[in-house]
Amino acid sequence: MKFLSFLLLPITFLLLISCGENKKSEYPEGKEGSLNWIDMKTAAALSNTEKKMYFVDVYTDWCGWCKVMDKKTFSDPQVIKALSEKYHVVKFDAEQKDAIVFNGQTFEWQAAGRNGVNMLAYALLQGQLSYPSYVFLDADRKPFKIARGFMPADQFLQELASVGK
Predict the structure, then answer these.
(1) SS3 content of the chain, % helix, strand, coil (to 5)
(2) What is the dihedral of CA 27, 46, 145, 126, to 10 degrees?
């Protein structure tokens, strides 16, 4: 009987811990020393109580300059700091096939070209699909600026500084 009690106590404790309230942040944890990228669905659902703007990296899987931007520019500590302080940083695959509800409108994937396009990318980039492209949204998720093409870290930081003016 003592053995059974001895065994049941830790099991009961573990069950109580696992059944406790699990508070999940609406914003996923990022890796230390890197940008905490979120997807468009998460961005659309954020309550944004801190009233940060949004920075949307519009990319495709086949885009070589998009990969260079990730490796060289978005890994730069100054870029990470500048983006993290003022923006929710969003990665958006322009060819994503999942529908996205954004600002009350549903955007679907459309067959076009080689791989098709999610119509949200088309809307955000005002029909000018080139990659990489970056869309700046205000705190209410309304676009106000588009930047295009690969930028080394120093040039990208100048671009960010111009947005704040």
Answers:
(1) 35, 20, 40
(2) 110
| Residue with token string 């980039």 | 125
Residues of the domain holding 139 = 37-44+52-163
Distances (CA, A) of 144 to 13, 38, 87, 111, 127: 53, 20, 14, 27, 15
11 pLDDT tier (thresholds 50, 70, 90):
very low
The amino acid present at 111, given as its one-letter code, is A
Domain assignment of residue 32, yes or no: no
Spatial contact of 123 and 64, defined as CB atoms under 8 Å apart: no
Count of the separate structural domains present in the chain: 1
Residue 81 is part of a domain; what is its CATH number?
Answer: 3.40.30.10
The pLDDT assigned to 34 comes to 85
pLDDT digits (tens, 9 = 90+) for 76-122: 999 999 999 999 999 999 999 999 999 999 999 999 888 899 999 99
pTM for this prediction: 0.79
Under 8 Å between Cβ of 60 and 115: yes
**Structure tokens, 138:** 């205000």
